[in-house]
Design brief:
With 97 residues, the protein is mainly beta. The strands form three sheets. It has a four-stranded mixed sheet with strand order 1-7-6-3, with no helix packed on it. Strands 2-5-4 form a three-stranded antiparallel sheet, with no helix packed on it. Strand 6 and strand 7 form a beta hairpin. The N and C termini lie far apart (43 Å). 9% of the residues are buried.
């Protein structure tokens, strides 16, 4: 793999490369937690906040892994007050607290 770990935001994608030292160029990509991130042909897509491991496997059983952290796409919510409500706005969703 091109790196040992990566962090991306929910709903964002990042492409990673597997370096092959063999003649078999067919790589099977899997995520150990597809509820956090999916992977297809080396393109990792953040699905939900959390961590997972992406595995690139060859038919001969050799593999390589990368640790993936998916971060919330709302890092600094906007806060404001109106009368008796405090509201946090994040990704077009409003939660009253």
């Amino acid at each position: 793999m091109s790196t040992n770990s990566i962090s991306i935001e929910e709903n964002a994608s990042e492409t990673i490369m597997a370096t092959l030292n063999c003649t078999d160029s067919s790589v099977t990509w899997t995520s150990t937690n597809p509820g956090v991130a999916t992977v297809h042909d080396g393109v990792i897509t953040g699905v939900g906040v959390g961590t997972t491991t992406v595995v690139a496997s060859l038919a001969d059983g050799t593999s390589s892994t990368i640790d993936v952290s998916i971060l919330s796409s709302c890092h600094s919510p906007v806060s404001f007050s109106t009368d008796s409500w405090n509201t946090i706005v994040c990704n077009s969703q409003m939660d009253n607290i």
